[in-house]
Amino acid sequence: MLATLPLLENSDFPPITRSRLETLQVNLGYRCNQSCLHCHVNAGPRRREQMNRETIGLVLDILAQKKIQRLDLTGGAPELNAHFRYLVSAARELEVHVIDRCNLTILQEPGQQDLADFLAEQGVEIVASLPCYLQENVDTQRGTGVYSGSIEGLKKLNARGYGKHDNGLVLNLVYNPAGATLPPPQAQLQADYKKRLAEQGIVFNQLFTLTNMPIKRFGSTLLSRGGFDDYMQLLKGAHQPGNLQQLMCRSLVSIDWQGYLYDCDFNQMLELPLPLPGNNRPHLRDLLQQDIEGRPITVADHCYGCTAGQGSSCGGALIE
Fold it and tell me: CATH assignment of 5-307, given 2.10.260.10, 3.10.20.30, 3.20.20.70, 3.40.50.300?
């Protein structure tokens, strides 16, 4: 795989600093039942990295001590971590809002048949990847059969009450472009998704549009096809300074499967650690003892992916 970090480090991205910490985004491991082209984590069925019970205990300690109210679980497929349900249940007992970044097909995997029931019982918000409402596009990007499995998963969630506005069971979808382009306007695309999925009896709350990051699997593909420089020019040319104040890294800490800290999930994949004085690789244990508000954030050229156009974050577009 071709590395993109050497092409990103010498950056003119504007300096930014942290605000109050509101979200822990925890990567529970890289194992996944899919291997998607745009995946910046390089997740797949053969990956074996997984957060252990001790590290999960530190996550819960941080939530309690720092009074953080949002836990964002990602992977791989986070549900494949052996301690996923323990972490969700313990966080909910702390009255923490839990988000599960679900790929939908995991709901049909052996041993996960009751997953939808568990998520509904715990009141977990689901953010589900569905890169298009058309079968051909989804199967091209994510693999043959993924679209039908995703539709089945959505129907299963709807049957448990997800996506209906009156019961608190939130189901949001995520769109990634199929190639080296910026996402279209989020509100317009959301209307298209709602219309097309309603034809199959499916409802959801919101659609989040995310920009593909020029790192890991997607970045390597750009390099091998000679499109990396053009994509970076697209991102930089579409930079909107007004997006800087709303960047997710200002109020979020990303935690890898070993418990090490990063400013965001993308920096985690590039192995760019959260900067702390005298500590080249800060861990959850360090976060228990320090306040990081006001600290600088590590930036590189991939950060333009979050400020281009309408902006991009784990919660979708930054501006309409």
Answer: 3.20.20.70
